[in-house]
Amino acid sequence: MKVLGIETSCDETAAAVVEDGHRLLSNVVFSSMDLHVQYGGVVPEIAARSHIEAIQPVINQALTDANCTWDDIDAIAVTYGAGLGGSLLVGVMTARTLAITHQKPLYGVNHVAGHVYANFLTDTTLPGYSLRTAQPRFPMLAVIVSGGHSQLVLFRDHFDYTLLGRTRDDAIGEAFDKVAKILGLPYPGGPSVSQKALDGDPHQYRLPIPQLGPRNAFVGIRRRVQHGDAVQGDAEDRNDPYQSVRRATAAGGNAAMRAVVESGKYDFSFSGLKTAVLRLAQAETGHDYTFPSTKLPEALSEAQKANIAASFQYTAVKTIVSKTKQAYDEFSPVSVVIAGGVAASPELRRQLTNALPKVTIEYPDLKLCTDNGAMIATLGCFQVMQGRSEADPYTLAITPNLSM
Ligand code: KG4
Ligand code: ZN
Fold it and tell me: What is the pLDDT of residues 118-157, one digit of tens each?
């Protein structure tokens, strides 16, 4: 059973063919990052325009690399959220059109869940990939760390999970990007901060790890209930910031799980850390908080930049790792998997290995950590194999703020 996966949620135009949810037959990724670097971040309109130009050639290449014609493809899976609206539209409209013209079943895939499924690829016909030796087993704790997401998710089985915690402000990848800007390092910040940190001392500066109180989302939900608003229903869910909390508690199924989610003990926050780095950099150059951040790159020495990069990276990663360890101790998962672009971080891999000596954590190939079509095709395979409902190719809509 072969699924073509299409991914266009951000700046990567990607397509891949995956067989039976474990065999990678092709993986083609075209990134428009070069066009965004000068702006210090992805420009949505430029990304969308680039997808329009690249999508057809990328899909054709994915079919060719997999030695497939359309006759060999059993289904099409496409990312319909979360992501940039214009970017998602190109992928979804292309997939809808292809599903209709080639008469293939269509499946909408959640981008964030897709990242987790990069861990289910175990064999390939392609050169240059180092894949896991076996698929993860359930219960599985997933640490999702990317440019747009930081989440801890406990999977009891495929499509049966609880979102234990998530960031309340910035994602960890965003924090890397902002710190890179403060230090005058190139975008994207993850790889450049990682590189700079190699020359620095991670213990030179002590940066804060926030202690978060209970979520107050339930206050909002209760207020809405008191006002007679509906709190159930898909259409209404779409733009509702509380949907993830409700879904998590519903999926959790019992009061103990609800209490865990509500306590907020597995939530993250990275905006305070980013501000702490800004204040630290200003203080190190002998200025106060009024000193413009744009002047910091020239005012800081290379040694100071390296020490700040290393101390920031150590603390950001520790924030993720300490909650992961806490969740591991509480839920005793059989597997722990890492997903998302920040899974490429060597410091994250080092700290996790130290924190969880009893589990062997296998990482997806670096090419499968950042956005790609293979993870979407893999999750698409499981949607087919587990009889999940097909999307209507005439109506599948994008959901830019889709939650897990
Ligand atoms: O998953 P991804 O490709 O895109 C999103 O769905 O967000 O993740 C991109 C993020 C960027 O923020 C990038 O800075 C980060 O992954 N990243 C890293 C490293 N390589 C990429 N962060 C830390 N260390 C790295 N080595
Ligand atoms: Zn992603």
Answer: 999 999 999 999 999 999 999 999 999 998 889 999 999 9
Ligand 1 atom closest to residue 111's alpha carbon, by position in its atom list: 6
Closest ligand (CA of 146): 1
3-state class (DSSP) for residue 394: coil
Q: Confirm if 375 and 141 have CB atoms less than 8 A apart.
A: no
C-alpha distances (whole Å) from 130 to each of 257, 284, 364 are 36, 42, 8
Ligand 1 centroid to residue 365 C-alpha, Å: 14
Nearest 5°: phi and psi at 139?
-65, 145
Residue in the structure block whose two tokens are 């790159």: 297
User: Is the separation of the CB atoms in 1 and 385 below 8 Å?
Assistant: yes
CA distance 6 to 22: 17
The residues that bridge with 200 in the sheet, in sequence order, are: none
Q: What token pair was written down for 298? A: 């020239």
Looking at ligand 1, which atom is closest to the CA of residue 346?
A: 26
Over residues 5-17, the pLDDT tens digits come to 999 999 999 999 9
CA 145 to centroid of ligand 2, rounded, Å: 9
Beta-carbon contacts of 167 under 8 Å, excluding residues fewer than 6 positions away, are 149, 150, 151, 267, 268, 269, 270
Residues with CB under 6 A from ligand 1: 10, 146-148, 173, 176-177, 188-191, 194, 340-342, 344-345, 370-371
As residues whose CB is below 5 A from the ion ligand 2, the structure lists: 146, 371
pTM (global) more than 0.70: yes
